[in-house]
Amino acid sequence: MPSRTRPSPLPPVGVVFVHGMRTSSAIWHHQLDHVRDAGHDAVAVDLPAHGARHTERFSMPAAFEVIDDAARSFAPGTPVVVVGLSLGGYTSLAWAARHALGAAGAGGTRLAGVVAAACTADPKGKPVALFRDVARATVAGRDALRRGATDLALAWRTALVGGGGPAGGADLAALLGPAAGRASHTGSGAHRPGWDVVTDALTHLAGRSSVGHLRSIRVPVWLVNGARDQMRLEESRHLRAAERGALVVVPQAGHDVNTDAPDAFNHVLTRALADFSRA
User: In this protein, which residues make up the domain named AB hydrolase-1 (predicted)?
Assistant: First the structure.
């Protein structure tokens, strides 16, 4: 019988995982194991004001430096893939657009592709400051926290689409991070940021366009959303903006698509890395 030739393994890449608001690098443990088992190098970063960097204040330039450092941590010449969720997705798209313009901080990094999850609602041109200000008011009036969370959902929905009902409570909680309120430490000692980071993050997102960033990026971009995420408001517009893009909607998952459906998300990662290797 003729022997069967096994498919050649994909060339290894370095994968940088970037978490969402008020979480940390810890959300990526399923994905880190998955891509490392496939023979790739990988690192999950903590954004400023989160995780090991909780004493720092969030800003987009500081977040870019974090991704720059992670991209430079791989062996010289290793193609880099950036995978971001929510705030991390917006930050990754902005970083990749900056990279396309030849920003010095990228240090000659060869970008192979981007996976941007839960970030297909463009903040530019919308009253994002409204959401920021409601967040500030909620922090100041903690006795009205439950009412404030509802106001935040309505403000966010209004800011993005100009009206309509509030986003689902579960999706809002995922967007802002667990246990909304003041900064705290969990029983395991991990730091959990307070809502003050929301105001900083939205201040730095205001005026930036995820659609504009996609138009600038010259590598493949995979957009990934959970089917139950009510924040997936402008998927088609984002997909059209990508020079070479793909959109995957994961059934039964919400905003935190990588933890709601880790096996499905890992399958998407496998497909995306294969696509990037052909670029």
Answer: 15-266
